[in-house]
Amino acid sequence: MMETLHPVFWILGTILLYGALGLLLVLVIEGVRYRRPMTLVGSAISLVPAILVGRLADLPAASKYFAVFAVALVGLYIAFAAGPRRVEDWQRIKRRKEYARKVTLHLILLTGAAIFVVPFAWLLTTSLKEEDQIFKYPPVWMPTRQVEIELDGRQYKLSTMQIGGQTANVAELAEFEDGRKRVRVLAGSPDAGKTLVVERAALAKIRKFALKWENYTEALEFLPEETRKGLLYLWNTVYITLLSILGTLLSSSLVAYSFARLRWPGRDVLFLVLLATMMLPAAVTMIPVYLIFRSLGWIDTLRPLWIPTFFGGAFGVFLLRQFFMTIPTDLEDAAKIDGCSHFGIYWRIMLPLIKPALAALTIMTFMASWNNFMGPLIYINSPEKMTLAYGLQLFQSAYSAEYALLMAASTLVMLPVLLVFFFTQRYFIQGITLTGIKG
Questions:
Q1: Of 88, 145, 179, 219, which residue is 20 to 30 A from 126 by alpha carbon distance?
Q2: Which positions ≥6 away from 171 have C-beta within 8 Å?
Q3: If we measure between CA atoms, which residue out of 169, 168, 167, 197 comes closest to residue 182?
Q4: Do 403 and 219 contact (CB within 8 A), yes or no?
Q5: 3-class DSSP state for residue 171?
């Protein structure tokens, strides 16, 4: 019966862990900020019973996990409850509630962030592992490499094995087709210098923390020679991405300015029609668009991947239109009095005022163009015109068993997107949150 309750104990123990951690942070913040050393001392003393339970209690792992944090939570709550209770301490009580609210919110956000970071962390660490560490359970999060030793001017991998009831260090000299290995016993053992043939399972590798950066260079070397180690794929992707960003910003901002600031017959009806196109699945228009590009002779060229962006998109137009509508009309009226044309108002006044929205649209266009796989798959046939996303898919098909190399290639393709979003996330969030706010 106890074994069936273990998952429940792990879950309840985790809940208690969060509660204890929240109370501890509240007490530490209060003690440090208001220079109350007794609060810090009380927090430390309240954790002593939990430490004793963890070290002395003879319980199963899940039960001990539950018991430790249950005792910690009770001790910290006693220290928390021993705080202010008099009427004149209402300000301190209010501060405690505010600390508790903020700590709870940050713990929830940090937990969510950790959950979403786990897949990327696994991708990154796997790209730096040796093959025999990839499928180990529980997963190996810190990549290690087998220690090597120099014998007779050559490097050999180092392992340990049991010889006569003693552990001896051995150098792996060679491996046979049946899985057995020829090893030499090293100094420090009574059998030092002997050469043995043993089963692979009898050896325990001696490892140390080290990153296998060779996975990245090997992944590039696996690519066809005409791609110049992937530089051709990179150039095609950068070329398409830059032109797509330019086309999206230029066309979407012009159309959005027309819908937001100019008055002409049928404007609102056409805007509704434009928004209605967002409900059309891409699969519905895929064949007609392909036939159009084929009639233009653009198949197996990069043009279908960037020229459509110069005709605007419903989402970009809607995003910028909402931002244009937040700008006061007084600026536009003053420019008209000074003799500025509509295009001058758009270029000199409106565009500088919607930089956050333009930055957000730039980031989204960059990510969509960089990761575009369906477009190259449909329109590109020549290997020298492929993009990174398409090249990564071909790499996966050809070397599906090389997991470390595949993860290294995926990291290389994804790294520019992560860097762009990391350094521009402030503009992205600002552009999204300010859209639709009246100024």
A1: 179
A2: 149, 151, 156, 157, 158, 159, 183, 184, 186
A3: 197
A4: no
A5: strand
